[in-house]
Amino acid sequence: MSLTGKHVLSSELFDRDELERLFSLADLLVPVARGRKVARVLEGAVMASLFFEASTRTRLSCESAFLRLGGGVLSCTNAELMSISKGESYADTSRVVSGYCDLMVVRHPDDDAVHEFMAATNVPVINGGNGAGEHPTQALLDMFTLHREFGRDGRGLDGRRVALVGDLRYGRTVHSLINLISLYEDLTIVCVAPAHLGMPVALLERAEMRGHRIELSESPEIALKDADVVYATRLQTERFGGGPVSYGEEFRIDKSLVSRVCRADTVIMHPLPRDSRAGSNDLAMDLNSDSRLAIFRQTDSGIPVRMALFASVLGVAEQIPDALRPATWYRPEYTGPDDAPFYRNTAL
User: Fold this and answer.
1) What is the CATH number of the domain that holds 197?
2) What is the count of structural domains for the chain?
3) What is the pLDDT of residues 146-160, one digit of tens each?
C-alpha cells in the first residue's frame, strides 16, 4: 500500500505491513529528529497547521517534523483570527488554504470538521485529533514506542496483555490505538473504565473479529496485574457536555499501585497531557523516575514518526537514505533531572 497523496483521517487506513514500513523509516529518522543529522527531502514544500483546539505536542511535533525535513510551515492556532469567525465555511477555508500549501494538519473539536476539510481540498489532510473521534498520528507514535520498547530485548508485541485505562469513551487516542494494536496477533486487551466511560462497542467488536480476547473491568487494581502495557488516559472533561466529570481515586495510576500490581518490565504509557491537579486521578507525577514510564519516550517518538508519515504521504520516503547528512550545530544533552537512568541510555 502506498501512502502517497493519501488523506490520513483514521487509523483504519493502516495495515501491519504499512506500520512496519513506517517504523523502519522512523528508526532511520531518529537522528534527524534529535538534530544529529539532516535530510532536506521536503525543501520547498509547505505544511498548513490548522489547530482549532488546544495542542502542545501534536502541533509542535508536526511542525518540527516538517521543518526538520526542510519544509516550511504556515500555522494558525486561533479560530477567532480566521475568516471562519466571520461565517466562512470549513469547505471554503480548506479550498483557500490548499492553494497555499502541499499538506494540511487539522485539529478540531467537532468530530466531522476534518472530513469537511478533506472533502474540499486536493492536498492531503492529516487528522491531528477530531473531537472524541480519532487521533491517528498519536496512535502511530504510541505503536512506534511499543515497537522500540519490545525491541530492546527481542520481544514482540504479539501475545501481549494490554490494559487501556481511564476515559475510553471520549479518549480519541485509545480509539485509534485499539485499531492499530489489534493488527497484531493473540492479544488480551483489557478495557478498564467506569461503565459510563467504556470503549465504544464497534471498536471492541472489530478487535474481537481480529481474534483478540477482550476483557472489561472497573478495577485497575485487578486488571493491571500481569499487564505488559498499561496505557492510561486523561478524563476528557471538555467533551462531557454536562455529564459526570470525575471518577474515583482507584483510577489514579501512581507509584503505590504500580509497585503493588505491575511487573518489573511493564511499559507504562499516557498520550499526555496528564492532569496533575489535585483530585484528577490521572497518571501520577511520583512515577517520573520509574524506568517503566515511557511517556517521554512517547513524546520523543512523535517527531520521527510524523516525519516518516509526511515523507510517505508526499512521496519522498525513498529519497531519505541518500539524503542523510551529518548536522553541524551544537546539540546539548536533552534529558532532564527526572528522567530515569534507562531513558538516558536509549537512542531516543
Assistant:
1) 3.40.50.1370
2) 2
3) 999 998 777 789 999
